[in-house]
């Protein structure tokens, strides 16, 4: 039987997007042999340019993109895939853009399934959230976004399945930001200025494209909102109480350039926060959703170094899920919650899941 060819249109070729391409190129043979699936990227884009290659990009894709990418609109992409009769289309959103999300519904209406690392679509107003799902149902398309919470960790899936089984989830809490976890884990154990560790988190690709999204608490709040909606709670972003780590004189009101050059302003207040804690305590940035009281909160806390949160390392997330059956002892999911390799692998897993769904649909059509 010939392999199922999947055509991926990739929006965003930064940390996650470019790592995804390289992972697919490396594992192409494995997918063909083990899954009978061929993954191709006929179109890849950054925020302004797109590179079109009907047969799919090859190893030298970065040079080809630099040389031949052209300005694009979403209509150009839809027109191209129709003209070229490309089938089994998956749009992958590896951006942090709010604009790109507006294209999800037109893409679905034109035959695309969606896989997204971008949290925006799931955190806009409930009206959009529902409209998106209405279209997915109407056009029989999938939308997978496991990497929205915990990067490659199976958090969304676990919450979804618990809820699906009728399990009552009572509380979800923990460290949800990989980058802020990395920053505080190092800040607690090393004598380095906060701004230096922040710069390293940015350089490694752990933070959002604009790290103020992480330090403002918005990124953690989005993750809480996504999980809350998975268990059918009617909540909006504005319902979340967020205690920001940004400063009155260094925040979203500054230009990105001002923010970039003034990060050492963080050093003094965070040094004071560190040395004024009780003995053997460390700082941790946590999110908490208490389902009964419908309270969603993002805040900085000081915890004993010996506690589970106090012992976190690297860019670890630690997410506790309290449910009726599990009682006082929560389900715990722990591991790297940010990083381009783990995130790209999570996106790739979602792509393969969509491909398997397409395979099943094809088999059903063929049997009719
Ligand atoms: N990094 C991580 O550890 C994790 C990231 N994620 C999510 O993955 C997404 C990507 O993160 P990351 O790769 O680190 O970010 P990067 O900043 O490295 O890359 C973002 C990419 O998106 C492109 N882009 C921006 N706007 C648009 C647009 N409107 N249309 C098409 N492309 C666009 C950028 O292009 P240009 O260069 O032209 O601006 C760039 O290529 C984010 O939503 C993030 O939350 C999720 C889990 C973990
Ligand atoms: N910036 C985010 C990346 C993953 O969503 C984080 O630090 O957790």
Automatic annotation (TrEMBL):
<dbReference type="InterPro" id="IPR036291">
    <property type="entry name" value="NAD(P)-bd_dom_sf"/>
</dbReference>
<keyword id="KW-0028">Amino-acid biosynthesis</keyword>
<comment type="pathway">
    <text>Amino-acid biosynthesis; L-threonine biosynthesis; L-threonine from L-aspartate: step 3/5.</text>
</comment>
<keyword id="KW-0486">Methionine biosynthesis</keyword>
<dbReference type="Pfam" id="PF00742">
    <property type="entry name" value="Homoserine_dh"/>
</dbReference>
<dbReference type="GO" id="GO:0016301">
    <property type="term" value="F:kinase activity"/>
</dbReference>
<keyword id="KW-0418">Kinase</keyword>
<comment type="pathway">
    <text>Amino-acid biosynthesis; L-methionine biosynthesis via de novo pathway; L-homoserine from L-aspartate: step 3/3.</text>
</comment>
<dbReference type="InterPro" id="IPR011147">
    <property type="entry name" value="Bifunc_Aspkin/hSer_DH"/>
</dbReference>
<dbReference type="InterPro" id="IPR001342">
    <property type="entry name" value="HDH_cat"/>
</dbReference>
<keyword id="KW-0808">Transferase</keyword>
<keyword id="KW-0560">Oxidoreductase</keyword>
<keyword id="KW-0791">Threonine biosynthesis</keyword>
<dbReference type="Pfam" id="PF03447">
    <property type="entry name" value="NAD_binding_3"/>
</dbReference>
<feature type="domain" description="Aspartate/homoserine dehydrogenase NAD-binding">
    <location>
        <begin position="12"/>
        <end position="146"/>
    </location>
</feature>
<dbReference type="InterPro" id="IPR005106">
    <property type="entry name" value="Asp/hSer_DH_NAD-bd"/>
</dbReference>
<feature type="domain" description="Homoserine dehydrogenase catalytic">
    <location>
        <begin position="154"/>
        <end position="352"/>
    </location>
</feature>
<keyword id="KW-0521">NADP</keyword>
<dbReference type="InterPro" id="IPR022697">
    <property type="entry name" value="HDH_short"/>
</dbReference>
<comment type="similarity">
    <text>Belongs to the homoserine dehydrogenase family.</text>
</comment>
<protein>
    <recommendedName>
        <fullName>Homoserine dehydrogenase</fullName>
        <ecNumber>1.1.1.3</ecNumber>
    </recommendedName>
</protein>
């Amino acid at each position: 039987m010939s392999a199922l060819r999947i055509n991926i249109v990739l929006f965003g070729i930064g940390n996650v997007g470019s790592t995804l391409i390289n992972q697919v190129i490396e594992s192409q043979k494995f997918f063909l042999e083990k899954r009978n699936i061929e993954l191709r990227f006929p179109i890849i884009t950054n925020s302004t340019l797109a590179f079109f290659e009907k047969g799919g990009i090859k190893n030298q894709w970065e040079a080809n993109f630099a040389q031949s990418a052209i300005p694009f609109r979403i209509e150009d992409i839809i027109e191209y895939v129709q003209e070229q009769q490309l089938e089994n289309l998956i749009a992958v959103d590896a951006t942090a853009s709010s604009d790109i999300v507006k294209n999800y519904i037109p893409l679905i209406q034109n035959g695309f399934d969606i896989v997204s690392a971008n949290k925006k679509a799931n955190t806009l107003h409930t009206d959009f959230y529902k409209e998106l799902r209405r279209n997915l149902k109407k056009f029989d398309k999938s939308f997978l976004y496991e990497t929205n919470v915990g990067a490659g960790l199976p958090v969304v899936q676990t919450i979804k399945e618990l809820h699906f089984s009728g399990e009552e989830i009572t509380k979800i809490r923990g460290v949800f930001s990989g980058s802020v976890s990395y920053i505080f884990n190092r800040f607690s154990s090393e004598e380095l200025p906060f701004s230096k560790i922040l710069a390293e988190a940015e350089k490694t690709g752990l933070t959002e494209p604009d790290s103020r999204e992480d330090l403002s608490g918005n990124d953690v709040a989005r993750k809480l909102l996504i999980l809350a909606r998975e268990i059918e709670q009617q909540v909006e972003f504005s319902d979340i109480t967020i205690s920001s780590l940004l400063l009155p004189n260094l925040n979203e009101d500054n230009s990105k350039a001002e923010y970039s050059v003034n990060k050492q302003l963080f050093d003094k207040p965070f040094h004071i926060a560190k040395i004024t804690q009780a003995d053997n305590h460390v700082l941790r940035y946590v999110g908490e959703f208490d389902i009964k009281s419908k309270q969603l909160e993002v805040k900085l806390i000081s915890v004993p170094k010996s506690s589970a949160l106090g012992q976190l390392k690297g860019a670890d997330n630690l997410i506790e899920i309290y449910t009726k059956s599990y009682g006082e002892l929560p389900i715990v999911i722990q591991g790297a919650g940010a990083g381009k390799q783990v995130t790209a692998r999570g996106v790739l897993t979602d792509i393969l899941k969509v491909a398997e769904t397409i395979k099943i649909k094809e088999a059903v059509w063929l049997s009719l």
